[in-house]
Write the structure tokens for this entry.
Amino acid sequence: MSTTATIETKPAAPAIEKIKVKVDGREIEVPKLMPDWTGKLTPTTMIQACELAKTDVPHYCYHPKLPIAGNCRMCLVEFGTPALGPDRKPVLNPDGTAKIAKSPRPAIACATPISPGMEIYNNTPTVKQMREGVLEFLLINHPLDCPICDQAGECKLQEYSVDFGQSTSRFAEAKVHKPKAVDLGPRIMLDDERCILCTRCVRFTRDVAGDDKLGIVNRGSYNTIAAYPGTQFDNNYTLNTVDICPVGALTSKDFRFQMRVWFLKETKSLCNSCGTGCNVLVSSREEKMYRYTPRENDAVNGPWMCDAGRLNYKWVGRSDRLKDVLMRGAGQGGLVKTTWLTAINDISDKLKRAPAGSVAIVASARQTNEELYLLAKLKANLGALSDSVEHTGEADRLLVSADKNPNTNGARLNGICYTEIGSNLPQIAQGIQSGNIKTLIVFGEDVTTQGIGADLLAKLDTLIVSNILPNTTTQLAHYVLPGAAHVEKRGSFTNTKGRVQKFMKAVEAPGDARAEWEFLHDLVHNVTGKNGYVTIEGLFNQMAAEVPGFAGLTWAGLGDTGVTVTI
Amino acid sequence: MSFTVPANLAAEIDELITHYPVKRAASLMVLHAIQEQFGWISQEAVEWTAAKLELQPINILEILTFYPMLRQQPMGKYQLKVCRTLSCALGGAYQLHHHFCEKLGLDAHKHGPQTTADGKFTVEFVECLASCGTAPVMMCNDAFYEGVTHAKADEIVKECK
Ligand code: SF4
Ligand code: SF4
Ligand code: FES
Ligand code: FES
């Protein structure tokens, strides 16, 4: 394990020649080659040059992470190139500048490469007219059912209608009706009438997900997106098509008709369902989560995420969440409700009195770096054995990692577990069996499924458990400390590749449940007598200063997309 | 898959595929060959073709549904094809089409080819049959008719045994 953190940079590419173009009269230097959707360097397109010039070219079918199709024609621009005389030499204006020969025909900016001296006109009356024309055609058979459309508020048809639309329709004929509410797969519902046939979904599933399931059937005004009859559009990435569908044609069954998007608060967060740590936006309203959508991070997930991770948020609102601080009454008493102050003071006293080596800690690799860091402090102070629990599943070729813990590397870097996660568990079990270990601290795991069964737990003097949901271990605990789901707190995870990424708080934890780092801070303070930081920023920075694996990092420096450390 | 391809057709298709640099490019010709043999292209045939060309069935379905002359249902024994491109449209193609439909008990307003319940007739519109000067024109299977009046239309139907 190296001690240096490196800021992720694009691999040092050979210097790329720059060329000068003008966008709406402003000269700008752009690289001659730029990454295409696969990252391969290809001649820079007009749309890329315009983006570098901070000029927006309206588009539907173009998506930077999909192969170019050039079918919607929304991105038409006018352009000119330096005129050449019969001698193949540039023709000059009287003032010595190159004379520009304006192309008589427009070009689609998404698929046309730039050339030196090219002038792109993105804002002429002709360009405006073309866009108005394209939009008018797109709306001819469109049902205009925005009031009940899930996409309303984030729909490109609506957006461009504001810019290029007409207030009245000139279309007097009958609209073509197409299938509505087509059940495309377990998670996707398609409204063919809203579809503008940009083929983003077709290209995504064929070229990115590698599951060539969708196509356009029939022709002319009857064109419809479809899966082959009798088959399901059901790979683990289908919901990404809902994100990239520029209109309300592809909808998520989970989110369909649940909430108007403009009421949603978006919080930058991470998926915690596997070790990849896809960046997400959590959309919530009044403490209720409605959806995850991927947040682009080219160092981790690009613009995508898997369906399983995306939909794994509902458990957070489960009614059986642990909401109360519980303490076992004297003798054979059951668990009774208490306050944080009583419980933490009680536990602190017990831990302070515990002889060295009599405490063990089973932490969870679903906890944050900061929490694991605090647990590591307790561990050091108590001379405790510690470990964490492995959760594995199947990996795939795109994003999903076999490691179902989001922070195994965080647990490793903090010294809570070792390269082989879980290798200390038998030793802990043995320690309890032999009576050496009298106190067990368990965070977020059910140790009864990990070789530390109820019989062993019964031998303990003190079983301190923190969790989010109840399990057999929480039922047997002497102290139950209700924790917060990651969407209910701030913190950071270290993914399988060493990307340290932070997440923000989207919703409040229920009842008395609290972010673990908050009460761990109190506990560490009481037990070690040393004060720590009471903000997540301070805590992270302290960890970075003390734990070699995180050296050089700062909370602020993590930015929105994280920093990679060497694993 | 309940679709069996006779040996001669299988051989023909295998040979067809060799004409193209990639198997996918043979899609249309394979569909033609199948339609030639069976008169139409069933879902099983689509799946068979996709497997044959190492494609997904949806890739073949896209082609099949794009070309109206690739048939997705069995057609009638007699296919009445009424031209409806400009000259014929002006010359009464829609009335002629309507006449056929009424006579044969079909819905003239439905999209696409209409086949009678007994499977004897299919009526459909087609595009320009290249005899615009003698509109309206039509075909009955491979026979070509010009200046088709409704009386002539009745005769054509009568001749279909
Ligand atoms: S369903 Fe959406 S993404 Fe797919 S072609 Fe239609 S508009 Fe484009
Ligand atoms: S790949 Fe992993 S981190 Fe990404 S969305 Fe799926 S489960 Fe979550
Ligand atoms: S964005 Fe260029 S043609 Fe669709
Ligand atoms: S328009 Fe009917 S034959 Fe040409």
